[in-house]
Write a structure and sequence with these properties.
The structure is a single chain. This protein has a nine-stranded mixed sheet with strand order 1-2-11-8-13-6-5-3-4. It has nine helices and 13 strands. It starts with a helix and ends with a helix. The relative contact order is 0.17. It is of the alpha+beta class.
Length: about 300
């Protein structure tokens, strides 16, 4: 067979094969493209969920002195705490808790928390001193949108328009989702709360989020992941602050004015690191600024009930 005849047969076979192949319509191509886009979105979201909580450089708070007393959990007994700090209504930071929280911290790592509770609806509060604004949102939506949002560093954000999750876990009918009940059930109380009634407040915040100056009853706030910078002042030393200015903007101005200092009339400060907890006495003014993507839990102590129980 000549070369020319062979070429004719090849072209003829190709033509037959092309007639047998199904045509891809525009609609089928669009559906295939949409499927690929959805698949890629799910892969990207899965990868984003599995990343760790982020840690940042956070000037000017990095390396600031701690003017609050600090004590190791291995050295501070319940009796010493009650005598030296609780009775004297003096704040204290307890260190060395990390080794005792390994299992619980694993449950609140970013990926684990979103897998377990990402679909749960949480109530966000406005990040001003009164926290009156409320917004309902999925935990995943809050973490991926609000926590990951880059905060302005010029101090010109309105705190009433920033959303922060730090404690609202009860539904409108007064019940709590099973997921949060299970999570709180896995948390062991700090030994310093004793037999007092305790109300938990669990929260997550992004860099430079926080709450401006406010007061309430006594309690503990434990940093599980990330760092939180605290500012505290006694009940009779009301700080100079605007309730609708973000805690971050207020802190920058307070540092510039020299209001944050050790000694009489000064505002105390301390960075509470992961594996540490701070005791805030009743009616002490306090503000917080998260320096990293932070996970924390507060234990509000019903000291009135404890006093009654001891009678």
């Amino acid at each position: 067979m000549s070369a020319e005849s062979k070429m004719r047969r090849v072209f003829a076979s190709s033509a037959v094969a092309s007639r047998r192949m199904p045509r891809v319509t525009a609609r089928a191509a669009t559906r295939a493209l949409a499927f690929v886009c959805v698949l890629l979105t799910r892969i990207a979201r899965a990868r984003a969920s599995d990343r760790d909580w982020r840690r940042f450089r956070s000037p000017p708070f990095d390396g600031r002195p701690c003017t609050v007393p600090r004590a190791s959990v291995d050295e501070l007994s319940l009796e010493t705490f009650a005598r030296t700090f609780e009775s004297a209504e003096t704040p204290v930071v307890v260190t060395g808790l990390g080794a005792r929280r390994t299992g619980f911290v694993e449950r609140v790592e970013r990926g684990a928390l979103l897998r377990e509770l990402g679909a749960a609806t949480v109530t966000l509060s406005s990040a001003n001193a009164h926290s009156r604004g409320k917004l309902r949102k999925s935990l995943r939506g809050y973490v991926e949108e609000d926590v990951a949002a880059k905060r302005r560093t010029d101090g010109k954000e309105d705190a009433s328009e920033i959303w922060y999750w730090f404690g609202d876990h009860v539904e409108s009918d007064g019940t709590m989702s099973n997921g949060f009940e299970t999570l709180f059930g896995a948390y062991d109380d700090l030994e310093y709360v004793g037999d007092a009634n305790v109300a938990y407040s669990f929260g997550v915040g992004g860099q430079f989020s926080g709450v401006p100056m406010h007061t309430h009853g006594p309690g503990w706030s434990e940093s599980l992941i990330g760092r939180k910078h605290w500012f505290l002042a006694p009940p009779d030393a009301t700080p100079n602050f605007d309730p609708n200015v973000t805690a971050y903007a207020w802190a920058l101005e307070a540092l510039r004015r020299g209001d944050v200092r050790d000694g009489e009339g000064g505002i105390l400060e301390c960075t509470v690191n992961a594996g540490e907890a701070i005791y805030f006495p009743p009616n002490w003014w306090h503000a917080t600024v998260n320096l990293d993507e932070s996970v924390f839990i507060s234990s509000f102590v019903n000291s009135v009930q404890r006093a009654r129980d001891e009678l």
